[in-house]
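Fold this complex.
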Amino acid sequence: MWIKLRRTFEAGVKNFMRNGWLSVATVSVMVITLFVVNTQLAIIGANDLRLKDVQNRVNISVEIKPETSTSEVKDFQNEIQGYDKVSSVELIDKEQALIEFKSFTQSGSTIQSGIETLGENFLYDTLVVRTYDPSQYEDVVKKIETSVSAKYVEEINYHKYRDIIDGLSDEIKTTRKFSITLALTLSLVAILVTFNSIRITMYSHKQEIEIMKLVGASNNYVRLPFIWEGIFYGITAAFFAIPFSFLYLKYITSGDAASSVFAFSNTKFLKDFLSVYFIKHIFIIVLVQFAFGIILGVMSSLVAMRRYLKKL
Amino acid sequence: MIKFENISKVYPGSSPALENINFNVNPGEFVSVVGHSGAGKSTLLKLIYTEEKPTTGTVLFDETNIVDLRPKELPILRRNIGTVFQDYKLLPKKTLAENVSFALEVAGKSDGEIRETVPKILDIVGLADKMENYPREVSGGEQQRVALARALVNKPKVLIADEPTGNLDPVSTWEIIQLLLKINEFGTTVLLATHDNGIVDRIARRVVVMENGRIVSDKQKGKYQL
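Structure:
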């Protein structure tokens, strides 16, 4: 068994080296496949991050009537926290809100002087409610409005932002769908091209397979060198695809290229995400690349070889 | 040793390639199978190394009906049958030495044995100095001698040569035939398919004549007569 593995391994190495241009062509096609899959995955990852970011910014602000006591507000907060769709409820009291409001506006501006003139805090205590999913805001708002504690509510400002929120999450979902479809389509095309180029490689081996069988080689003995060859294709391809993808992501996330390629978002965290994406996930990426490359190489070889093996 | 019983082979939509074939080959015999192209010589030989299966009938090899062998058992049978063809069928990306050692490798021989045997057999066919060359770098006659070396290296019981001299000049042709006769002297059964009357007449051994898929004559010391 070992002797068989060793001999076929050596034969595989020799085939790979002696095939010359055919090996180069096959590996190139596989590098492109892996590159496409790689960068698409990174972009899908970035898009998911963007979705999460928007979701975190979206919230429901429940303004509480001034006459409500602190303990009533606390109870109300706990009640909302108990809803199963709610991820967090944060209480911002009006003093804190005023400080935040002031920090947003420029000192000496008319708004600031207006606040000064009023002399009293015109803001409300506010409960900031977040849900796990933007689509759940509607339900949560309804629940708050129909609860017994609704009497404390001055205003829920969700309605004001509803259209914007809906629009945003729709847009993100569409982008996500689009990039996944694109990634799948491109990957499929690349896989088919790889399969085809390995099929051509196999066709060039057609007579060899026939001869090997005539000399008395078992099917496995014929198959194994080609499987090894497929593995070498995968490894070599991954070896080149990883630095290529790394450089590509580096390029689109830095310098002038960033703003043109990433028109959909110039936020810093996205760039950060993509520029560290590789370093952060290097092990899993290398693993997946090699696994994918090897599986692609081996499967294509096996399928392409089958008909020649059957013939004899 | 080899027994054809009531063999016929029909490819769908054409006249029979083989019809009612009955004949025996005894151990140590040298049999020339002659006939025009399309007479059925190659098809008959293919039945022995199981590249083709008969439509009806049985082929016995050492009392085993090889028609019924399972795919897994075929490699073992083939290691007992050496084959040589008109187009040499060498592996183009392997050197001459590697071509010969491949036959030993598939038979599971040890590295030591391979290292020892390959130069020896290549020396016998006169190619010791070209071991590291690739098939495309040597002449047709030399390629055919490598093919012969490969066919013999596993010490097969039977050697099948299907038009082995079809592409060769007269000198190379005669070299190959002499090698075949020598191999036969050492006890290997040889089946030679050819349409070269000169060869058959000089060999002067058993001749089986085929025509349109049938055996029309079978003589112990035959001449090429159609």
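Residues 9 and 225 of chain A are 6 Å apart (CA to CA).
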